[in-house]
Amino acid sequence: MKTPYYHYDLKLLGATLDAMGQAVREDDPFVVHYAIKACYNDAVCRMIASRGYGADCVSEGEIKHCLEVGFKPENIVFAGVGKTDEGIDYAISQGIGCFNVENVPELEVINERAGLLGKTVNVALRINPDVDAHTHEKITTGLNENKFGIAMEDMVSAIRKAEKLEHVNYIGLHFHIGSQVLDVSLFAPLCERINELQDMLDGEGIKTTYINVGGGLGIDYEDPNGHPIPDFEGYFSVFRNGLKLRAGQKVHFELGRAVVGQCGTLYSKVLYVKQGHEKKFVILDAGFTDLVRVAMYGSYHYIENTTPHSTTLEPYDVVGPICESSDVFAEGRMLPATERGDIYAIRSAGAYGHVMASTYNYRDLPGEVAE
Ligand SMILES: Cc1ncc(COP(=O)(O)O)c(C=O)c1O
Ligand SMILES: N[C@@H](CCCC[NH3+])C(=O)O
């Protein structure tokens, strides 16, 4: 296969889904959705859909793709901070399960569009819980300063508004504090916040059946071989122990990275090995156009030379071919002596990898293979 390309390990995906399924107990009122924004690959999505999971979408395109790969419309939630009228109409016409609504003007638009289509739709209100996920600032979403959701102090009035509108049916609350959260105990403050908000809703006599806690469970980028499967047990038990649920309530999860992150690898060919002024550069045929996470967030990805010629390790700056100084995958990384033509594997690239690729520098998008 022509490099650079993504390889998805469907066996590992299957094992990850098994582990996730086993971590949810029979009496847990838990419903898991796959946050499809993490990876659109057909075979990957089909395998997830075939296990009966729901999907979390943020655009008309994502909803269409979910329906094509086998997710059921009633198991799809439509989130997203700026839903378009076209996207809203499409979601309504397809009968998706719930809209996670980000603000009151959006609620009014959904009501209006549903009225025009002669439908009534389920809505949950995304509340900004002001809980710190202690993750990278660019993937933190649940703080007051972030653009997401309705402020807690406006929650009751927004629900009252929803109750008055004819074509929306208020079912509950939605939260998402951020992504790549490795310490699952950081979700405990979210549970406490939800408990406080539920007490407030009880006081107002507001009935809530749907609690969506978003996604965010992280993966081990440092050691994908040692920890190929995330801590689903720990993650679900924080919510099992932390949430005080009312009778009949269901807890929805929207996991992306944890489901697909470790099963993807970006393979790239070494074009040149260059001795620079003080250091050696490995110049790959993959750049940030293929995997943007390092350039965008300074993220760490484990890198292997799959065709080593010796076991001697040397420090290399691993860079791409894009005309930008930020096109760097690693600096001073200890790797086996490398030659032109070697194939590098950039690991843990299944989530937010191919989906964030671009054609900058008039490049092709990277290929994909799932097996
Ligand atoms: C609302 C919402 N739900 C779910 C996710 C999926 O997050 P993750 O891939 O961290 O599980 C995201 C992305 O962070 C999101 O914004
Ligand atoms: N794209 C980010 C995660 C953002 C998740 C979407 N809310 C990453 O690669 O880590």
Automatic annotation (TrEMBL):
Catalytic residues, chain numbering: 323
N6-(pyridoxal phosphate)lysine found at: 37
Cofactor (UniProt): pyridoxal 5'-phosphate
Enzyme Commission no: 4.1.1.20
PANTHER family listed in its UniProt record: DIAMINOPIMELATE DECARBOXYLASE, GROUP IV DECARBOXYLASE
Reaction(s) the record says it catalyses: meso-2,6-diaminopimelate + H(+) = L-lysine + CO2
Lineage of origin: Bacteria, Pseudomonadati, Bacteroidota, Bacteroidia, Bacteroidales
Domain Orn/DAP/Arg decarboxylase 2 N-terminal: start-end pairs: 28-260
GO molecular function, a single term: diaminopimelate decarboxylase activity
Pathways involved: Amino-acid biosynthesis; L-lysine biosynthesis via DAP pathway; L-lysine from DL-2,6-diaminopimelate: step 1/1
Pfam families hit by this protein: Orn_Arg_deC_N
Gene giving rise to this polypeptide: lysA
InterPro entries associated with the record: Ala_racemase/Decarboxylase_C (IPR009006), DAP_deCOOHase_LysA (IPR002986), De-COase2_N (IPR022644), Orn/DAP/Arg_de-COase (IPR000183), PLP-binding_barrel (IPR029066)
Example GO BP: lysine biosynthetic process via diaminopimelate
Keyword annotations of the record: Amino-acid biosynthesis, Decarboxylase, Lyase, Lysine biosynthesis, Pyridoxal phosphate
Protein name per its UniProtKB record: Diaminopimelate decarboxylase
